[in-house]
Amino acid sequence: MKRILTYLSAYKKEAVLAPLFKLLEAVFELFVPLVMAQIIDIGIGTGDYAHVAKMGAILAALAIIGLSVSVTAQFFAAKAAVGTGTALRQALFDHIMDLDYTRIDRTGTSTLITRMTSDINQVQSGINMTLRLFLRSPIIVLGASIMAFTIDVRSALIFLAAVPLLTLVVALITKISLPLYRKVQGALDNVLLSTRENLTGARVLRAFRQEEAEKARFSDKNAALVALQMHVGRIGALMNPLTLIIVNGAVIYLIYTGALRVNAGILTQGQVVALINYMSQILVELIKLANLIVLMTKAAACAQRISDVLATENKEDDNPAPGAVANAPYLVFDRVSLTYAGAGAEALSDLSFTAEKGQTIGIIGGTGSGKTSLVNLLAGFYPATSGGIYLEGTNLRDTDPALLRRKVGIVPQKAVLFGGTVRSNLLWGNPDADDETLWRALRMAQAEEIVRGKEGQLDAEVAQGGRNFSGGQKQRLTIARALAADPEILILDDSASALDYLTESRLRAEIASLKETTVFIVSQRASSIMAADKILVLDDGHLAGMGTHRELLESCGIYREIYETQFETAGKEAAV
After folding, report:
1. Where are the domains of the chain?
2. Which CATH number is 332-575 given?
3. If you write DSSP's letter for every residue of 432-454 in order, what string do you get?
4. What would the pLDDT profile of 479-518 be if each residue is shown by its tens digit?
5. Could you say which of 1.10.287.1080, 2.40.440.10, 1.20.1560.10, 3.40.50.980 is the CATH number of the domain covering 10-309?
6. DSSP-based three-state secondary structure for 354
7. At what angle do helices 153-200 and 136-151 cross, to 10 degrees?
8. How buried is 497 (Cβ within 10 angstroms: 0-12 exposed, 13-18 middle, 19+ buried)?
9. For 77, how many CA atoms within 13 A lie in the half-sphere containing its CB?
10. Residue 526 burial (CB count, 10 A)
11. Which residues of 254-356 form beta strands (DSSP E)?
């Protein structure tokens, strides 16, 4: 919670002024029953309508002043709450963007989305309502009780019984509700996870005709959330009837004793009305305070969830990284292993190889052999579980992430484009690139004719997710985006799978011209990596072979099997 409050410190003035203006509003509100008593006792009781008009004007003045200070308090509270929410959301987003994939996997994407949206909204609402009511409600309750004693001590004794009893009811309901609200947020995470999976996998669901099964699964999770919310709602719903019973009982007592004391000439009718008004004010404020406590409870639970994410760090002290290595090759993998969070076995085991600047490294292997895992380590997305990865002699863990991102250009398996224009997508790789650089990258990626044929060319529209481009076009544009950055290390993670052989051949020729760039090509096709300076053959996370194409044909059975299978199949198809 302290971590969250640091973001409120930028709005100290608003955080002080909002409660102070609410305090003024409470003070003015406490005078209203006394003015009403004057109107009833003196104005109406004696027929002095001039006094009624005078007191009416005072009531109007109190209302205008109260409204003014209330609006001012609302303004300061809203400014502090929204400003804190904005800063917190930005800080949380920035922190998530800095986390490696391991930490994101552990937390869960759906949970992170919930904490970025629903949880921060709850915290923002909690800050807003706290600044508005946390000082006002106790002052009204205390002030109304004191004012009641100034009117009549004996009648006001009921306040001493009602207020503690009301407070006890509010405290018990709040204590029971607190842990349940945490469970509600967890159930909301599950609903969001199901929603996200169904939206991202809509085509797969339809292909396998699983719509009804997913509807049922979503209904189960939604029903669990509804059941929790209903349970909390029923407990919270007890507050109004219980508090109303207590207050109405107190009002009945006030009316009864007030009537007796009015007949005895001890109290006036206006004073009895004032006492009842003060009791009603206490009721309203205690209910507000109870709702505020419930909101604060939810906000505190959400704030803790946000703090947990902000406290998550990439580096682990229990697995210190080896230091720098002198006179090392450009890139070194030294006995590197990788285990994903929650996995039962290693994805990569005891991997060792080197790469010199300007070399082309091919990576091949069967499905699930660890090719993409190796790419994720190269790009710094995941830290190595054991061993060390050294870039120019420096351990990758000690390298500034921003510097690493500038050195590495990656084209992932799934081509991802963002809504905007072709230019805005290409500039992700190099924000300072001019048109000549962008066209050169498009030419190398075999995407120039695609963009030339679009209206607006570089300024042609790209729909959300690039849905106005085909799969092959998206792949070429994502390759151009990486090339526009002129990276020292270029990683192509099976990024030509949607390209025909002729286009892929031209692409390989262009990439081969990058003499100062170290290129890693991950592919299922042996033809894509045959010309590489070094080929890594992976099998179930282990390095099954390493060398040139000719060396591996002689020494690595797995590589030879892949090569012969693909080329024999291609020959048979050509013969047909």
Report:
1. 10-309, 332-575
2. 3.40.50.300
3. T--HHHHHHHHHHTT-HHHHHTS
4. 888 888 888 899 988 877 777 778 888 888 888 888 888 9
5. 1.20.1560.10
6. strand
7. 160
8. middle
9. 23
10. 21
11. 331-338, 348-355
